[in-house]
From TrEMBL:
The gene is tnaA. It comes from the Bacteria. This is Tryptophanase. Its EC number is 4.1.99.1. SUPFAM superfamilies: PLP-dependent transferases (SSF53383). Homotetramer. Residues 47-430 form the Aromatic amino acid beta-eliminating lyase/threonine aldolase domain. Belongs to the beta-eliminating lyase family. The modification N6-(pyridoxal phosphate)lysine is found at K264.
Length: 466
């Protein structure tokens, strides 16, 4: 077999994208308060802000979308979707939601209320790393979110196959010391916050079994479940000969509940899931919250056609040719940057290349947001939009109000599925290499406007001298 195979699809419809001049980009960036989130999308040439809801649907998805059943209750598309969930994950009960955080907002308050009814006074969730919205919904409901990420993930330049793993010693310690307060463990696959890094089956099993042995629920945050399965197939000996569907079933056999943003591996532009293996009581309790928050239990904030597209997208996510070509594209971009000496989280993850801004701009302090400086410079250079995952997204210490340095200062280049070609990636790499050559000219940032919460989305900045 050829080592490198082209994409397993051909293009049936194109969407023009617009190249701008440097002057136009400078103007657009100033208008946006030096915050890429506030740019107009039409002023962006290549948009790597996120891989969430930005992918291209297949002809089969579009075809099934036309068959969507828009009945308010009991839609045929709901039953099609829940049948697909049963087949892929072996989970009996499905609640559709408008996206991942929809699942988080209906599930976590239910679990926390039930724990409090049982006498838990300081509820806590443990995770390899909570995604921000999961953490926010846990905290909004009066519980704590603690991360037990493995130390390898902190060393960006050291290659380690499983940087998304739990630190099992840390997890064991937490369970031993605080068992009665732990509501659930959340296994985030892949682990977005540390670079889209996978957790191994060995680690998933060990963490889940540790939790179950102490009567603690196991939840999977499943946004990038099939990318995680692909890494397991290629990196974990026991699974070399297994298919992606077999590996997915095996991963999910360790969990009681999963929440999913289907905007990633689920391959839809909007949609999510909250599913239960066999706990009918928890399913019904969560359905009760779904009605006022997301909508009736068989549509959960989605149109029938959205559920129809998701039913196909979930199946396509398991296609190994798709996964190989997708992950090869992320590697392609990562390799080009590494060959130019640019420091990235190594090896690259499933959905994005995470550039280590701290290494590129060592003299810009965390409080002046080196990764955001880099994002803006890349936009100015080539019209490429990326996102800061560092001190800005982390926020201030809620108690002291101080801006402490985040563990990482990443510029994330997230790659939408089936959307851009390797030529686009070469252009992104060339643009960033140019930026890094002149990195000593880049200026630190300070707030012009700082909202109290969710700063990443609406803050405005000004440049200051070094
Ligand atoms: N869990 C993970 C691991 C995620 O990466 C996200 C979203 C969510 C949950 C929430 O899902 O957006 O559908 O409500 N991540 C996006 C990103 C926003 O850009 O990484 P959602």
């Amino acid at each position: 077999m050829f080592k490198s195979l082209p994409e397993p699809w051909r293009i049936k419809m194109v969407e023009p994208i617009r190249m701008t001049t440097k002057d136009q980009r400078k103007h657009a960036l100033i208008e946006a308060g030096l915050n890429p989130f506030l740019l107009k999308a039409e002023d962006v040439f290549i948009d790597l802000l996120t891989d969430s809801g930005t992918g291209a649907m297949s002809d089969r998805q579009w075809a099934n979308l036309f068959l969507g059943d828009e009945s308010y209750a009991g839609s045929k598309s709901y039953y099609q979707l829940s049948q697909v969930v049963k087949t892929i994950f072996d989970f009996q009960y499905t609640i559709p939601v408008h996206q991942g955080r929809g699942a988080e907002q209906i599930l976590f308050p239910v679990l926390i209320e039930l724990a409090k009814e049982k006498g838990v006074t300081e509820p806590v969730f443990l995770s390899n790393h909570h995604f921000e919205t999961a953490q926010a919904h846990i905290e909004l409901s009066g519980a704590r979110a603690k991360n037990c990420i493995c130390s390898a993930s902190l060393q960006t330049e050291i290659a380690d196959d499983w940087k998304g793993n739990f630190d099992l010693n840390e997890l064991a310690k937490e369970i031993k010391n605080n068992k009665k307060n732990i509501v659930a463990i959340i296994i985030t696959i892949t682990c977005n916050s540390v670079g889209g890094q996978p957790a191994s089956m060995e680690n998933i099993r060990a963490a889940a079994r540790m939790a179950h042995d102490s009567g603690i629920l196991v939840i999977i945050d499943a946004a990038r479940f099939s990318e995680n399965a692909y890494f397991i197939k290629h990196r974990e000996r026991e699974f070399f000969d297994q298919t992606i569907p077999e590996i997915v079933k095996e991963m999910f056999s360790e969990a009681d509940i999963f929440t999913m943003s289907a905007k990633k591996d689920g391959m839809v532009n909007i949609g999510g899931l909250c599913c239960f293996r066999n706990d009918e009581f928890l399913f019904k309790q969560t359905q009760l919250r779904c009605v006022p928050m997301e909508g009736f239990v068989t549509y959960g904030g989605l149109a029938g056609r959205d559920m129809a597209a998701m039913a196909i997208g979930l199946q396509e996510a398991l296609n190994e040719d798709h996964l190989r070509s997708r992950i090869a594209q992320v590697e392609y971009l990562g390799n080009k940057l590494q060959q130019a000496g640019i420091s990235i989280q190594t090896p690259v993850g499933g959905h994005a290349v995470y550039v280590n801004a701290r290494k590129i701009l060592p003299d810009i302090k965390s409080e002046n947001f080196p990764a955001l400086v880099l994002c803006n410079a890349l936009y100015l250079e080539g019209g490429v939009r990326s996102v800061e995952i560092g001190s800005l997204i982390m926020g201030r210490n809620p108690i002291t109000g101080k801006q402490e340095p985040s563990l990482f200062e990443f510029m994330r280049l997230a790659i939408p599925r089936r959307t851009y070609t390797d030529n686009h990636m070469s252009y992104v790499a060339d643009s960033l290499i140019e930026v890094v050559k002149n990195a000593d000219r880049l200026k630190p940032l300070e707030f012009e406007y700082e909202p109290k919460i969710l700063r990443l989305f609406t803050s405005r900045f000004r440049e200051i001298e070094r």
